[in-house]
Amino acid sequence: GDSVTQMEGPVTLSEEAFLTINCTYTATGYPSLFWYVQYPGEGLQLLLKATKADDKGSNKGFEATYRKETTSFHLEKGSVQVSDSAVYFCALFHYGQNFVFGPGTRLSVLP
Amino acid sequence: DVKVTQSSRYLVKRTGEKVFLECVQDMDHENMFWYRQDPGLGLRLIYFSYDVKMKEKGDIPEGYSVSREKKERFSLILESASTNQTSMYLCASSRDRGRVAEAFFGQGTRLTVV
To answer: Which residues of B touch A96 (CB under 8 A)?
Structure first.
């Protein structure tokens, strides 16, 4: 079945550092890909999405590109802030299936 | 904005109690889901529903049941709560699964069974 693998962390960075959180997936066909963010004590919020190969999703300075050839959807941000501290989930949605989530990556940004 | 509302942020229940977790969405979404979230285990799907009165088992349905009498409401029921059901419970909804659509989540219910 479909699956999502992502670096589990925790990832600790200093403010203004560059962020990469790796995500790879296994799926037949062409799933849609998502990054969700969960702030402490909250539910998940959609951060960005991409629906087809080579699409780039972006939001709040975060970006991720749908790479079909490497089955990846890595999350990047050029300069993180303390307020970005959260858990980040990579996920896919495949036609005829349900959402599949990765295990989540905890990010801590230090001032 | 889509809103998914869970009835409680925090609940404390006793072992053996019957527990109801309620979830309501206001965007006429066909699909609704219940997940539990535990440290190191990520999100695990308990039950989901594609339409009123329809339900499907997810990955970990044991000890749970669901009810969907109205399109906007999806209830998770713990028939006899046990301490291993202490967890964060997340409800989500989405449009028809035949189309590309993201899942929208509620704020979560942190349940403690003592």
So the answer is: 97
Asked whether the predicted pLDDT for residue A29 surpasses 90, the reply is no
The Cβ-side half-sphere exposure at B60, using a 13 Å CA radius, reads 15
pLDDT tens track for A45-79: 999 999 989 999 999 999 999 999 999 999 999 99
Count of H-run helices and E-run strands, chain A: 0, 12
CA dist., res. B32 & res. A14, Å (int): 38
Mutate to test the interface with A, among B31, B38, B97, B99 (most CBs of A within 10 A): B97
Q: How far is A99 from chain B (nearest CA, A)?
A: 8
Tokens 């200093």 sit at which residue? A14
